[in-house]
């Protein structure tokens, strides 16, 4: 799957990693819903770091369609709240 982190670029991520990412996504969803700014900031950073660590960066000039778009590391709680669906940021 191709994942875009807004403001950074794209990475190719194997589907096998989504179990780990979904745990962080579920935690992030709870923190956003509860208005926990400190927890939200920590978990968003952990989620994005996991995507960077587990994924393979695509070249900057690559324009692959992104199947998943994640917020930038400096996104606000309200901005992320607008991006959420019932499953969080990551479907499934």
In brief:
With 92 residues, the protein is α+β, with helices and mostly antiparallel strands. It contains 3 helices and 4 strands.
Describe this structure in words.
With 92 residues, this protein is α+β, with helices and mostly antiparallel strands. It has 3 helices and 4 strands; from the N terminus they run E-E-H-H-E-E-H. It has a 4-stranded mixed β-sheet with strand order 3-2-1-4, with helices on one face. Helix 1 packs antiparallel against helix 2. It starts with a strand and ends in a 9-residue tail after the last helix. The mean pLDDT is 93.
Which overall shape is indicated by the principal axes computed on the Cα atoms?
globular
**Which structural class fits the helix and strand makeup?**
alpha+beta
Residues in β-strands, percent:
5-15%
Portion of residues in helices?
A: 40-55%
Q: How many alpha or pi helices?
A: 3
What topology, given as strand order, has the largest sheet?
A: 3-2-1-4
From N to C, what is the helix and strand string?
EEHHEEH
Low-confidence stretches: none
Measured distance between first and last alpha carbons: 14 Å
Q: What gyration radius follows from the Cα positions, in whole Å?
A: 12 Å
Largest sheet: 4 strands, mixed
How confident is the prediction overall: mean pLDDT? 93
- Please tally the β strands and state the result: 4
Characteristic key phrases:
alpha+beta, 4 strands, 4-stranded mixed β-sheet, about 90 residues
Indicate the topology.
Blueprint: E1 2-5, E2 9-12, H1 18-34, H2 37-54, E3 56-57, E4 68-70, H3 77-83
Parallel strand pairs: 1-4
Antiparallel strand pairs: 1-2, 2-3
Helix pairs in contact: 1-2
């Amino acid at each position: 799957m191709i994942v875009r982190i807004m403001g950074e670029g794209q990475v190719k991520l194997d589907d096998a990693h989504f179990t780990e990412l979904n745990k962080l996504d579920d935690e992030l969803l709870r923190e956003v819903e509860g208005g926990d700014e400190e927890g939200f900031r920590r978990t968003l950073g952990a989620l994005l770091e996991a995507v960077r660590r587990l994924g393979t960066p695509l070249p900057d000039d690559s324009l692959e369609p992104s199947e998943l778009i994640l917020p930038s590391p400096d996104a606000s709680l309200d901005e992320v709240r607008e991006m959420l669906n019932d499953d969080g940021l990551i479907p499934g």
